[in-house]
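Record format v2
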Amino acid sequence: MIELVSAERCIGCNLCVKVCPTNVFDRTEHEPVIARQSDCQTCFICEAYCPVDALYVSPYTDEQVDVDERRLAEEGVLGSWRATLGWGPGRTKLAAIDQTPFINRILPERPIRAAGISDVRSPATS
Amino acid sequence: MSGETDVKLTADVLVIGGGPAGAWAAWSAASKGAKVVLVDKGYLGSSGATAPGGTNLLYLPPDKEMREKAVQQRMQSGGFLSEERWIHRVLDQVYENLELVEQWGYPFVKDENGVTQRNHLQGPEYMALMRKVVKKAGVKVLDQAPALELLIDDHGVGGARGVLRQEGRDWEVKANAVVIATGGCAFLSKGLGCNVLTGDGYLMGAEAGAELSGMEFTRRYAPAPAFSSNTRSRLLGWATYYDKDGNELHGSRSGDFLAERLLEGPVYAIMNKADTPEKQAILRSSHAIFFLPYDRAGIDVFTQPFPLTLRYEGTVRGTGGLRIVGDYCETTVPGLYAAGDAATRERVTGAASGGGAFNASWAICSGTWAGQGAAVHALGQGAGAPERKLRSAGRYGLADGRTNLTTSRADTQELIQAVQDQVLPLSINYFRSEAGLTAALNKLNSYWPGVSEQAPESAYDRIRAREAAAMAATSRWMYTAALARKEKRGEGLHVLAGYTELDPNQHHRILVSGFESIQVRPDRTFLAGVAAGSHQGTEQGA
């Protein structure tokens, strides 16, 4: 769930407030606050939209965890989902390099079924 | 509830819901010349099951033989509850619409021969694009604007009311046609993007008199990290499974394997069948969302075990929803249309899950058709919606003086938890038995009066109270329908212990409706168009 709105990075655009599907944030005079953390569904959408990489959604859906902003920044975690999606200036969109249409080409080999059911190997293995 | 600061709008078509189905419906209605308002509980572009991840699409070239084969396969896997004509319609329509998606700027990849691959969409990109397209078409969009109830008169539906939840104001939209595209119901099980999907549209539609169909086909759980939300599991095809001691377990993500094993103890997986850096890179550039929670938890999925769970997906990857009776996704209530997971998908999926390509394609097509139908209906009405004497259709879980709170006040959170306790457990809802479902249904029925004993005051509480009512109603429709289908049909989207065979006498859909007492009846209307053939002769049931 959402664990961090970086006061240092936030520019107060309130985009996260707008786009959060479950309305977790409240706008304030300064950076938005995490007002309803338990409603967070861990969908990472807010991070994708944040233009200054000020948010961190922890992977833990059901428990709150402590986070260290400096460490997240140093390890390149802040903004990493947005970077993966290729959102932001000068980046290539994930959609433009999407490999999903081709993943069946690298399917793991499957055992050959007993004769009589099918003696044809999975096309992906040929 | 209404005050001077409320937002009041009129339109030809109101679309409730801003996932793919709602977006396509709004675009489609606007393209037909209708004035359209779209409201979403969250945000058009980020709400719903599609936006955070990615989705496959049915994309078959218009090759007669190839398509006929696909249709026959689906008829078979769906236990012949689907309709050939509707599957063909979806294959045709989605092919056209995906070309539009490309024209609008979605950067589909090409293969080495230069052929564009339109069979997969990355959710964030797709839905951000749809938002642009919908707004460009002139649709008025209200975000963070959950609908609470429909408005009706003797001629049918004429709009809806809800809350602008970040402004503490109400909204009211009068429109001669309404498209319900609110998604399915996943009971707040925290599947990826699914917590906005609480069955709101089923509740609103049923209060206006609509029926539901296929609610028994709701036995669907998705593998996810035990600690996280990501219910996109296709990449588990490259996993090996282990128990807590590291012993290999033989099974796959489909079938009963995970459900059975998880009842015995923890199950772990390692993606060790993606055994080269090249393969790993390909997978990372396909379902990127799959890796995100593990990366952040410090787990290298290709070499380290990660714990799995199953999250319930209700009607999202199940198949049931509002019954649709016409080619434009009309419900039985005049002026009311249903699209996407809010509608039953049986016409194309039958008794099989629509999960993945079918549901995503259905959202596009049903949205397109519902938008067209709604536009034509609204523009053909003599009287504008503002002249109609509309009344509130909402009946349950609303705090507006219509409920008599003489007794105790029900706590909304406790009510939701009580419903979840009967719906989420594998032991009740996956391993279905008459005794188990009957006991659960009795409990759910006993909770039902509680939905109107909620006393919500804030905007937040009013929305939650309606979600609680919607989930309570949906759970009761599900189990009522499940107890009415005593057979095995299709590929296990509904089972009942002791009934292991297909029963030709149950070759019908199951309709449910109502609240205090739920009516159940078989629907065989879809068989009327079937030419006398192999499975027609078996229809002798009452």
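The CA atoms of residues 298 and 304 of chain B lie 10 Å apart.
The first helix of chain B runs from residue 20 to 31.
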